[in-house]
Design brief:
Blueprint (H helix, E strand, L loop, with lengths): L10 H15 L11 H7 L2 E6 L2 E7 L5 H9 L17 E10 L4 E8 L3 E6 L5 H9 L4 E8 L10 H7 L1 E4 L3 H4 L7 H6 L7 E2 L2 E2 L1 H15 L15 H13 L5 E5 L7 H16 L3 E5 L3 H7 L2 E6 L2 E7 L5 H9 L2 H5 L2
Parallel strand pairs: 5-11, 5-12, 7-10, 10-11
Antiparallel strand pairs: 1-2, 3-4, 3-6, 8-9, 12-13
Length: 338
């Protein structure tokens, strides 16, 4: 079973695990490939770790804990997986005021500051992705407003206008909405900035090569060549290509919707490190994630969504899995009393 839980959650995931237990009881051997460590500890009897095509270790599950398993997978201790930097919160860069859409959003407000990561948590169906789409101009607002403030003051009503204003979105489904999978890495990385790479309508290949080489070096993209089709890259390297594409536009705000979904632990660390480097440059990040350790480990502030609204906001010190789940699952009446 290769990543069978990638698009499952809640009761569907529980049903998958019941099926696996039933197969084991019938004498069927299951090889279960997953990046979700909690699943490994829940169902595995023995764990084999591969890294860069080589065998790292094979151990019975009872001999492992999370920290040891992560260290095998990443090559560094668990406390280094979520890198931290000492940076001051910058100026206000984005304000969403009481925004609503005809999907699920109902009066959402937030402020985003330069050089911070604002984590957005919530259950499936809480409105997290809809918030990302609304901020990006992909879903029309039926109420409220969104604007960049400060030197780059701007508003927008479409993704093209948002990109021009300095806001970009890395979507949760990179294959459907983030990449042209049958086209080359070169095209995917440079397509948002083609107008800057042409002269009298002719593409300057040397300038294009420079952009792609810089992206490959900066994000450690593993590829056979710049002309390799992106569909043949690993999930982690595909995600890096999406990031490289938007970073080439020099954005002020990046929205990351499930930034590490379907990527291995090593690629996760590289993405986390890049996020902190972007923070140090003053770029603001909105990070939507279903993984609570990721939300807690990377966010400077956390907003929890529930039924299309903000159920609560937590500082890094206040954040804990139990508190986030409490806010994410409380009823509308409870949330209204906050």
């Amino acid at each position: 079973m290769d990543e069978p839980s990638a698009i499952l959650a809640g009761s569907e995931l529980d049903q998958l695990f019941r099926i696996i237990e039933s197969l084991k009881a019938q004498g069927v051997t299951v090889i279960y490939i997953s990046h979700r460590l909690e699943e490994v500890f829940r169902i595995a009897d023995e764990v084999t770790v591969l890294k860069d095509g080589e065998l790292v270790a094979t151990r019975p599950i009872e001999e492992l804990d999370r920290a040891t398993l992560v260290e095998y997978m990443v090559g560094r201790p668990l406390d280094e997986v979520f890198p931290q930097t000492k940076h001051e919160q910058g100026e206000l860069v984005l304000v969403a005021d009481d925004i609503a859409t005809d999907t699920i959003l109902d009066g959402v407000s937030l402020e985003l500051y330069a050089g911070e990561i604002l984590g957005i948590a919530g259950m499936v169906g809480s409105g997290r992705t809809e918030l990302a789409r609304a901020l990006f101009g992909a879903d029309a607002l039926t109420g409220g407003s969104i604007k960049l403030v400060g030197k780059g003051s701007a508003t927008w009503g479409s993704p093209a206008q948002a990109i021009g204003a300095g806001l970009v979105l890395v979507p949760e489904d990179r294959k459907a909405h983030g990449l042209f999978t049958t086209l080359s890495v070169r095209i995917n990385v440079t397509i948002p900035i083609l107008s800057t790479l042409t002269r009298f309508g002719v593409l300057k290949r040397s300038a294009e090569d420079k952009v792609v080489r810089g992206a490959q070096k900066r994000l450690s993209i593993v590829m056979s060549s710049a002309d390799q089709e992106t569909q043949f890259l690993s999930g982690g390297n595909q995600q890096k290509v999406v990031l490289a594409k938007w970073l080439s536009t020099n954005p002020a705000v990046i929205i990351l919707d499930e930034p590490t979904r379907g990527v291995d632990v090593g690629a996760k660390f590289e993405i986390y490190r890049l996020m902190r480097q972007l923070n140090d440059r003053g770029i603001a990040i909105v990070m939507i994630s279903s993984e609570l350790p990721e939300i807690i480990g990377m966010s400077d502030r956390i907003m929890v969504m529930n039924d299309g609204r903000i159920a609560g906001e937590l500082t890094r010190e206040e954040a804990g899995e139990a508190r986030i789940i409490e806010l994410a699952t409380m009823g509308a009446a409870e949330a209204s009393r906050l």
